Each structure stands twice: as structure tokens, then as C-alpha cells.
Amino acid sequence: xxKMPQWADVILxxxxxxxxxxxxxxxxxxxxxxxxxxAVKIMVQGAFGTTNGWGYTLYYATSFIFTGLAVAxxxxxxxxxxxxxxxxxxxxxxxxxxxxFVPFPHWTFALLGGFGAAMLFGAAWAFIPAYLQAKRGxxxxxxxxxxxxIAAAVLNYLLVNVLRPTGGxxxxxxKFPEPTHLPTLHDMLLPLGIxxxxxxxxxxxxxxALLACVFVWLLIWRTRLGYEIRALGHSESGAIYAGIxxxxxxxxxxxxxxxxxxxxxxxxxxxxxxxxxxNSVEGAGFIGIAVALMGRNHPFGVLLAAIxxxxxxxxxAELALWTSIPSELxxxxxxxxxxxxxxxxxxxxxxxxxxFLSLRRTEP
Amino acid sequence: xxAPPTPAIELKGISKSFGPVKANKDISIRVMPGTxxxxxxxxxxxxxxxxxxxYGFYKADAGExxxxxxxxxxxxxxxxxxxxxxxxxxxxxxxxxxxxxxxxILGAEDGRLLRPSLAKARRELQSLAAEYGLDVxxxxxxxxxGVGMQQRVEILKALYRHADILILDEPTGVLTPAxxxxxxRILDRLRSEGKTIILITHKLREIxxxxxxxxxxxxxxxxxxxxxxxxxxxxxAELMVGRKVLLQIEKAPATPGKxxxxxxxLRVIDADGIERLRSIDLDLHAGEVLGIAGVAGNGQTALLxxxxxxxxxxxxxxxxxxALDLTGRHSGGRSRRAxxxxxxxxxxxxxxxxxxxxxxxxxxxGYHRDPKWARGPLMNNAAIQxxxxxxxxxxxxxPPNPKLAAKNFSGGNQQKIVVAREIxxxxxxxxxxxxxxxxxIGAIEFIHNQxxxxxxxGKAVLLVSVELDEIMALxxxxxxxxxxxxxxQGPAASADHxxxxxxxxxxxxxxxxxxxxxxISAAAKADPAQEPAxxxxxx
Lengths: 364, 539
Description:
The complex is a heterodimer.
Chain A (H helix, E strand, L loop, with lengths): L5 H26 L4 H13 L2 H26 L7 H18 L5 H30 L3 H23 L22 H5 L15 H18 L1 H11 L1 H6 L4 H18 L1 H9 L10 H11 L4 H24 L4 H17 L1 H18 L2
Helix pairs in contact in A: 1-15, 1-16, 2-3, 2-14, 3-8, 3-11, 3-13, 3-14, 4-5, 4-6, 4-11, 4-12, 4-13, 5-6, 5-11, 8-9, 8-14, 9-11, 13-14, 13-15, 14-15
Chain B lengths: L8 E10 L2 E11 L4 E6 L5 H8 L7 E6 L2 E2 L5 H6 L2 E4 L11 H6 L8 H19 L14 H14 L4 E5 L7 H16 L3 E6 L2 H7 L2 E6 L2 E7 L5 H9 L17 E11 L5 E11 L3 E5 L6 H8 L6 E6 L2 E2 L8 H7 L2 E4 L3 H5 L6 H4 L11 E2 L2 E2 L1 H14 L16 H13 L5 E5 L7 H16 L3 E5 L3 H7 L2 E6 L2 E7 L5 H8 L5 H4 L5 E2 L1 H5 L13
Parallel strand pairs in B: 3-8, 3-9, 6-7, 7-8, 13-20, 13-21, 16-19, 19-20
Antiparallel strand pairs in B: 1-2, 1-4, 4-5, 9-10, 11-12, 11-14, 14-15, 17-18, 21-22, 22-23
Helix pairs in contact in B: 14-15
GO molecular function (chain A): transmembrane transporter activity
Pfam families (chain A): BPD_transp_2
GO cellular component, one term (chain A): plasma membrane
């Protein structure tokens, strides 16, 4: 029996959670003597008011879509992949290696080559914890967290000792050659006669992220593999009964998850920095967990949640820039959103379910 | 107020809806103190909902509850306990690695320190045990005692909390016949000590055996309340389903064909190192139903799982002369299906169905890789849905809505979905475990007829059931298992309850010799004093 209509489940619950998080954030802003109204105005203006703001919001959103989808896919198989951060870092390494060492004739080849390498590296990084979980019973949450640190250490070593160009002063690779330059939204929209900010980092990766959403939707709800992933996620004993190889499906779901997280590198490494730097992921792997939670592990939900978090990132940066609200407070606001939409989901859901049940009862 | 004696419990006009579903419609019951009142009805008739209201899990939309003549509100289970109501659930709520004593006081500890509570509870437990004949070792761990004992602990928990009214929800579902008898003796004792008992069941025999009065529920309504002594099983069955049902199955004599499965020296040692099967030899022929009788936990589950390809074993199984893979690989179930072996597992909720999947997704579960359901790399959901709808109508699954999640169907209808899926594959071998566990009478009849129809189509059926009546009614041949071994096998026609009962307890002897054409194994004869194996756990 459906407790409440689907639109309420998908839209109303997150919306109310958001409003609650917003209200609490407003109180915090009031408490430090700033105007919440002004703060919201600056955030909205900063994130959506100009094409430059849009460009940053969408740039962040692109990364979050990839990592959010990564968490969502693993979650359907009941695997909690917290290693998106590390997988994205290693994915960046893959993208950087092909960009540096493969002479691409055109950006389209670079995009596909870079994307492929990034996904391959991300998947490989996810494979080890996945194998350990499926065959040896090591808990995926623990191992993926550990692997984030190992990834950072590996990258640190490689950037300092191996990939740093001679004479380079910071732990980063050389700039990628010109043909690997991906078109930004400015480049793409200009032929359509739309003026888009030249400096904003949003780029063609956004299209790839949207395609990834479609791909994940098809995978989870329209393919046999997706069917098996979901079956395993709901009941391992059921999956075994049905002749589904639980370890195999678990590992495959983690490979896809790792590939999606790694695939993010086309956005931040190729699209924006155009070289591999330390900490290029900037926490997007972790935000992906919140994005998947809020998006209820559905690609469309992930897309919306990614844009919301893109807004919080970009709006928050503007807030720190134009007001005396310290940047730590931005983290507080983001944390409140995660808390309400993710962890406290049932706090909103259960009263709402009761409301809908009583509404339905009064109907004839 | 009603004339004395006052009913121990009285419900007046209880109604409860879940969305559009009316689970209880204007239900009224009076139960006198010191009696056993049965509530009988098919799955989904609203019995459990009613009891959940009485125990404070659900709030009734309308109606009143009177306990010993006083109007009582029961907003939660704490209030129910305070009102003297105790509940024994179908699935026990015990902490496995606590002792009996610790489980009894759990939630009813007085004071911060455990020792005085435990000492007090021990004394009280001893007096309760003496008073009601509820013998249990207070220091035994729950995981070490049998299901029957665990149930006693649940009863003791309720009595320790001074319950005067005991509700038991399908108490014999997990018990062996002997344990059920013991339970009934305990209930009888409780009744004579003045306790009021409400027994929820769908087994007519239990109602006839022990209750004083019985209420029949059908589709959320109370269709009748009668004095048991003045009723008959046939009358109650008719009241339950609204039409006459056949308690006996009409079937033509079997015409067994060639040997389909040949099982030799099959041995299983499970992940915990316990030997579940000890050298089983069995043959299964086309066109026959082979019933495996036995007390739950004597290796039947392992046998089904090995045949179903999901448990590793040594020995050999040949199907039409070809050896089957016994490695129990993770995808073993898939290769078995490809060989034409369908499997209705004993536990539909954790194996046979994905409860969160829709009915249509479940109708291809295990067969989802069949090219029939593919459209390129994708699944042909539209085709699956159309076929699911037709399948659900053929098997009378109610409601016939393929988009509903499996968990929203009643137990009987869930089972029909599983049975429909497996039988409609027209398998050469059907493995079917506990086909009608927790299934209502109407659905039992239907499922039994489907099994016989498959047999008549020349297919082989291996039936595992702990319900001896079901084994006797369906099987052409019966094999009895005890402690991982076959104690004896022979034609169903010459089998009787007493002889089978002896074999189920691992004993040979005179009663088994009287069964014509039966082969009694040496294991049964060798050690007539052998203890019957304890039912191991409730899975």
C-alpha cells in the first residue's frame, strides 16, 4: 500500500526538509548579527544572477552529478561507497596521464580518451575494496574510507616525485597540451548566439554528466544487470536463490560506481584546471553521498540535488566574499542541508505520511 | 454494564483502514475470563490487525475496548501490558545471546542494578513454572534451546508482566506436532488457572481441539462467533472462505514414468560445520509427487538447497543420467533453472520474492535472464507486465495488480505469485518447500491442485513439508527424514500417521513395519531409543 502519493514522496519531503534547514540556517545567521534575507539574496544572486554565477554553479553540479550517481549505483546493491573522493582522485590521474602522453588530434578524442581513462582508473581503485568485501567480507565502508587516504598519498607521491615538470614549484603536472582543451559553456553557446561568461569553468562535461544520468537510469531500471543489482540490494538470500552471483554483482556495481566517480575528472581536471593538482576533487566525493541521499538514489533526484549543492557551493563562496559571514558558516549551512535531507529524512516523512493517511481517510 | 460475569475483554465496533483498504470493519468480540477464544480466518482477513490494535501497535479509527468491564485506551504496548495483556508473536522477540532469565526481565528490570532483578525474577520464574507447568532452564541461552522452549519463554515473559489475557498469534506455525501438543497442554493449564487466552490461527484442528468459543473473520469482517463444541470444521471452513472447501484432494492414481533424479550418497556440511545431510539416497520419477516428511530442521532445507543449486554437497545427483554440479556456486540457481528444475523455496519472504519489488518484477525473478524477456540489452518490461497480469489472473492473485509491491500482498497471495512463476515454467522437476505455510485455506486448495496438475502433466515433484496432512494428501511416495538421514520410504497409500510419526522421531519398530511396501532404513532400526533431533532454529 502506498502511504502517500509519489509526488509527495519525491518532491514534498525534500522540499520541507530544505525549508527546515533554511530556517535553521537563518537563525544561525541572525545569531551572528547578519541579515538572513541579505544572505539569501547574495547567495541566489551569486549563483544564478549572472551567467558567471550559473557557470560556477553548473560546474560544481557536474562534479556532484558524477559522484552522486556513483554513490547511488553502489547503494542500489546495498554497498555504501564512501570512496568516491579517492576514486575521483585516481580518475583524475588517469585523465591526466592520457592528456599528457597521448597526442590527441582534437578535443572530442581527448574527451572520450580522458573520460575512458578516468573511468578505468576510478573503477580500478574501487575494485580492491569491492573484491575485499565480496570475497573476504571486509566492510566496504571502512575500506573505501581508507582508500581515500591511500589515493591522496599516492597522488601526493606521484605529483611531487614523478609527474611534476622539472622546475615546477608546486605538486602538479604540467599543463595539458592545447588539443585537450574542452569547450566551455561559453564556447558551446556562442554559435547559438547566447553570450555566456567566458571565465566560468562549466564545460562540455555537463553534457556527459547528463548522459550519465540517462545511462544510470537505464542501467538500474531497464537492464538485467540493474535488476540483479537491485535484487541483491534488497535481499542477498533472495538473489542467491534466484541464481544471481552475489559477489559478482556486488563487484560489478562497485566498478560502475568507481567509474562514475572517476569520470568526474573530465570536469575538474580536464575542463577546469587543465592539469592535475593536489586536492583537485575538493570534497566532491563526499558531497556525492549527500547528493545521492537527497536524490533518493534516483538519477533525476541526483541531478536536482547536485544543482542544489552547486548552488550552495557557489552561493556560499559569494557569501564569504561579500559579507562578514565567515566561510565556516557556509559549511554549517551545507551541513544543515545534509542533516535534514539525509539523516533526518524520517523526521519529515513520517508526520507527512500520517497526514496523507488521515486525508485519505476523510475522503469517501 | 453487562450482567456478571463481566467479559475479560470486550471489543465494540472496532474499525481500522489502511488507506483505501478496510482491514477491520465494525468488529465486536466478548471473551469471558478463563476461556480460550479462537480467532480464525484466511491470511489478510484482518486477524493480526485486530490483535495489533488490542496490543497498542495500531490505533483503531473507531470503536472501544473494555478490559474487565472498564473502558480502556491502549495507545501503545506499554499500556497494553499495564492493562494485563500479553502477546506472543509468531516470530519471537527474544535476544538470542541472552539467557532465558535475562530475556524475561528485559524491559521489566527494576532498579539500575541487574543482580537484585535477576534474583527476584528467578524466584518468580520458579513459582510461575510450578504454577503453570512451564519448565525452562532459566540459565540456558535462547540460541541453544528449541523453538518450543523459546515460545515458552515468550509466554513466561507475558506472565512475568502479570498478563491475565494472553494473545497468541499463529503459535504452532513453527512447532513440531509434539511441541504443539505440549503448548496446548500449557494453554489448558493456563485456562484452568483463570487466564484468558486469544488464539489466532488458520488451522481448524487447533481451533476444534482447544478453544471454547471461536470467531471467524473474513475480509475484515467478523462473520460469526460460535461455541466450538456446537460447530464443526466444515462449518468453520465454510464461514472462513464463504464457500465449501475440499479438505481432501481428489487426484487420479499416479503414473510414474522414467527416473528423472537419482540422488546417491548426498552429504552436506554447512558453513557452520554442521552435517545437515548424511548420505541420502533418493530417486524421483516423472509423473509422481515425492513427499519428504520430517520435523523441521532435519535436513530437508539442505536437500532442497542442494537440488536448487545453492548449497554445496558431496555425492552425486544425476538428472536424466547427467551429473548435476554440486559445488553450490553463487550462480548455481541459474544453471538449475536452465536444466528445468524449478524451486519454490521454503521461505518466500527472504528467498522466493524480493519484497520491495513489484509483483511483475517478481514474476520473472530467477528467470529474468530468459531471452524471452529481453529487448536488446534491456529488459522488455512491457511484455513482462502483460504476462504478469495474465499470470496473476490465472492464479487468482488478489488484487491482480502487477504494479503493487510484493510486500503489499497477503501471505497466501505472495505464495501464489511464487508458485505461479515456478509452475508456469512447466519444469521437469519442481522442488517445493512448505508450499502452504502461512497460507489460507482457499489458496491451499488452489496450490495443491496446481501441484497435482503438474504431476499429471508428467512432471516430477519433490515436496517438502512439515505438515503431515499435506504430505499425506499430495504425495504418491513418501520419504521420512530425521537427523539428515532417510528413515524410510514407501508408497503414500499404505502410510499412516503413527508409522510416519515414529520414523520422524528416528525410530523403527512395529508401527512402521505395518506399512505395506515400505523400506525402513537401517538407521531407524539400529537405534530405536535415539532421541528425535531438535528443530534447529526457525529458518
